[in-house]
Amino acid sequence: MPVTVTRTTITTTSSSSGLGSSTIVGSPWALTRPLGLLRLLQLLSTCVAFSLVASVGAWTGPMGNWSMFTWCFCFAVTLIIIIVELGGLQARFPLSWRNFPITYACYAALFCLSASIIYPTTYVQFLSPGRSRDHAIAATVFSCIACVAYATEVAWTRARPGEITGYMATVPGLLKVLETFVACVIFAFISNPNLYQQKPALEWCVAVYAICFILAAVAILLNLGDCTNVLPIPFPSFLSGLALLSVLLYATALILWPLYQFDERYGGQPQRARDVNCASKHVHSVCSWDRRLAVAILTAINLLAYLADLVYSARLVFVKV
Questions:
Q1: What is the pLDDT of residues 92-117, one digit of tens each?
Q2: Less Cβ crowding at N or C end of the chain, within 10 Å?
């Protein structure tokens, strides 16, 4: 959805012209502009990260696989974006070019951030000193560089007053990315059904995570596909209703999840030391009690994100011109 952002107003426009890019489209000189150079840094840092790890085979286990996937995926999509901008192919790209680059950059920053934390804490520290460990440490450094580069792109290309831009470049749009990413991390931590099965309250929490994730993902996909007009209700109303519903649902999850996971009166486990799964330290794994705690923290983070989303969505006014 093309929008013009003012202090409290987002004006939707019917025109699809303008690409909202600070690079010179369809020219090799695009790579000499600040944003082009930044994307080259992203490409280089992710390429070096997965190359260092691949050269010594240092990505065993689910956490290592996730980090390797993150670097390879970010490298591939960044390369596609560079090719599209160099060839001036934005109009032929199947997704909205107003929304896709910044949406991807935000996801990539979060992906690389997670890899920069997960890879050294769950894998690198268990490696013996030597070539593999040195390569793994260097890969972590380049992963951090990639994270900073992607975050810088988000800061440079986000919506500012008076600009014609896409919804995903606004604060609520970027919060949608954060909300879906945090939900995906929650899903990873609750991948073991034993954490919530046979307890209706905890099953309700899982349903909350799934429902809110789907709704936020739908909002993102509608913007990426430039098809917000297919909704039976105005898109601004949909966004406000989505944010309000998600706040209410996550508020119940924030109460029920810690209550049934850590309160003995409801069958919870208040102390980590009493969890037999955490008695011994397993390489490349997270014990059940730590998973429960991580989900509780992530639930609080996502509730704050949805609250901010609700506040910013209420302040935005969409006016067609």
A1: 999 999 899 999 999 999 999 999 99
A2: C
